[in-house]
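Lab notebook, bench 4. The sequencing result for the construct came back, and we need a structural model before the next group meeting so we can plan mutations. Quick request posted to the team channel:

Model the 3D structure of this chain.
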Amino acid sequence: MRPSSHLLAPGFLARSLDEFKRFAKIAYTQESLRTATTPYHLLDFTNPDTITMCKTMSDADMGGFSKVALDQTPATATEPAHMKFHGSISIDLPPNRPQIQRTGYAAWRNKDRGPTIFGKSLWDVDPYLYLALRVKSDGRKYFVNVQTESIEYTDIHQHRLYAQRPGEWETLLINWSDFVRTNYGQVVEPQNEMMTQKVRTLGIGLTDRVPGPFDLCISSMWATNQVEDGDTHRRER
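Done. Here's the predicted structure in token form:
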């Protein structure tokens, strides 16, 4: 019996090896038996390959005029390497499409990750209290979006990204338990606890519908139990 070709693909083997290393480290350090002390890196945009694992979305997908792009920016003497989420918001409605009554949004998220020898690629962040983000914001009203293996596939858990120092690099912490369950942009009930053992995608969206340019820089996103340094800001819902 031969393994199928996708199981021998380099990406599959690399993902499987990464998962094996992570499981082995947890077993060796016995972190599953106590509070996790090692940060769990989720999306590291200092690695240029990470941006290729992400996709953009905007009202342009249904005929609107907002523009969105993701660009990789190398490190400098004053800034870390990072991904720039940028573009411009338009609230103009597409002509000849009367069913479209609302535009003015842009977003990105990671693509669904490929399988490993252990099964579907999902992040288990249950041992951690916070999602941490290293960002430089322009101060606009961004939301962090989390998708899990929930019963409703279209559910998105959201939390406002509260930048404390627009125009400067800072680390922001969001408690996983403070995310709000939504579906197609509307808060839904019941507010079931997020399945933090099975996180599928992470992303950020801009839905303030204020016409004009936007620019958000993201260096990394990780799960943690630590308040790392002096420019870390913890925000509750």
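Confidence is low (pLDDT under 50) at residues 6-10.
Will bring this to the meeting.
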